[in-house]
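Retry 2 of 3 after timeout on previous attempt. Resubmitting structure tokens to design endpoint.
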């Protein structure tokens, strides 16, 4: 010790040591206390792996608002788009599994990407814990107003008479609108030429201009154009009619069974999240989706409200992965 600096007395040294001991105990308690606190006790972040404005984002924001009201805690929506949802999903896959960082996934991120991409930044089978199916997002089959077909039957007849001549647009190769078109073509026994776009908006614009013939897109994106007469809706791709477009038949009603398709949104947590937190999340999602006003808002967005347990979402992910995986393999669809 430098002799110029006087050594503290023994009593002061003991007090200092005691203070350090108490500080360490307080820090340890702060680090372990959240495990014993009621969930949630602070702000929850819901990651949406797509840009703002789409069906997945709107559903996430409504859910976040209702959960925040129920919990009395902040719920923040964090849009992290990129690579067909891989960027945002990877953020949650690598997050701390404590229930405070969650994912709104959809059929693309959870069921299609594992078959579409040769390499993924996380293990799709082990990275997430399913929580609840939030809503189904059925698609609508619509055609250019200049196309002579005014029903699914007439469209199928036209397609069979002109193999590969009709062009079906999509928001991108390998996405659920593209795969829905492929499923329809196989079920109807027709051949069409796929025209992928970089997003749904340019595809919709070219459809209205008559540059392509048919597009499968979410009811949320399409209903206003159909109601305004800018596009002609032929059928919805869900298993039941849509309250948003009640006059349109399902594809099965229109004579093309086995073509049910579309998207959905579900809540997931990082793998390893405590089961008690998963169960509470599932129960609370089911509770807020049971409120009639919330359900009506989702219906107006073209969605079908659900609210299930983890097992139902897990089963849906696996069933859709097998179904869309077959289409991807049969058509040799893939991206790097």
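Retry 2 succeeded. Sequence:
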């Amino acid at each position: 010790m430098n002799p110029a600096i006087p050594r503290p007395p023994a009593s002061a040294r003991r007090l200092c040591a005691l203070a350090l001991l108490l500080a360490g105990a307080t820090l340890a308690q702060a680090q372990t206390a959240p495990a014993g606190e009621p969930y949630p006790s602070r702000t929850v972040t819901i990651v949406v792996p797509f840009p703002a404005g789409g069906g997945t984002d709107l559903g996430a924001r409504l859910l976040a608002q209702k959960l925040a009201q129920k919990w009395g805690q902040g719920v923040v929506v964090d849009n992290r788009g990129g690579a067909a949802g891989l960027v945002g999903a990877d953020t949650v896959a690598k997050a701390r599994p404590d229930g405070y960082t969650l994912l709104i996934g959809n059929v693309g991120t959870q069921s299609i990407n594992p078959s579409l991409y040769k390499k993924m930044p996380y293990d799709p089978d082990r990275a997430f814990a399913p929580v609840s199916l939030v809503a189904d997002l059925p698609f609508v089959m619509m055609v250019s107003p200049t196309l002579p077909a005014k029903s699914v039957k007439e469209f199928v007849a036209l397609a069979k008479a002109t193999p590969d001549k009709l062009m079906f647009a999509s928001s991108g190769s390998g996405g659920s609108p593209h795969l829905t078109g492929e499923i329809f073509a196989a079920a109807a026994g027709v051949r069409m030429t796929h025209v992928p776009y970089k997003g749904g908006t340019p595809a919709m614009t070219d459809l209205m201009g008559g540059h392509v013939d048919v597009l499968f897109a979410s009811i949320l994106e399409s209903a206003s154009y159909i109601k305004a007469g800018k596009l002609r809706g032929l059928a919805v791709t869900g298993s039941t009619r849509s309250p948003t477009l009640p006059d349109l038949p399902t594809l099965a009603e229109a004579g093309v069974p086995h073509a049910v398709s579309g998207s959905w949104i579900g809540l997931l947590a990082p793998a390893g999240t405590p089961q008690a937190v998963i169960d509470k999340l599932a129960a609370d999602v089911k509770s807020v989706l049971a409120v009639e006003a919330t359900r009506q808002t989702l219906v107006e967005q073209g969605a079908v409200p659900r609210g299930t347990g983890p097992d139902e979402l897990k089963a849906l992910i696996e069933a859709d992965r097998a179904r869309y995986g077959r289409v991807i393999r049969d058509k040799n669809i893939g991206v790097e």
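Attempt log closed. Residues 10-32 form the longest helix (23 residues).
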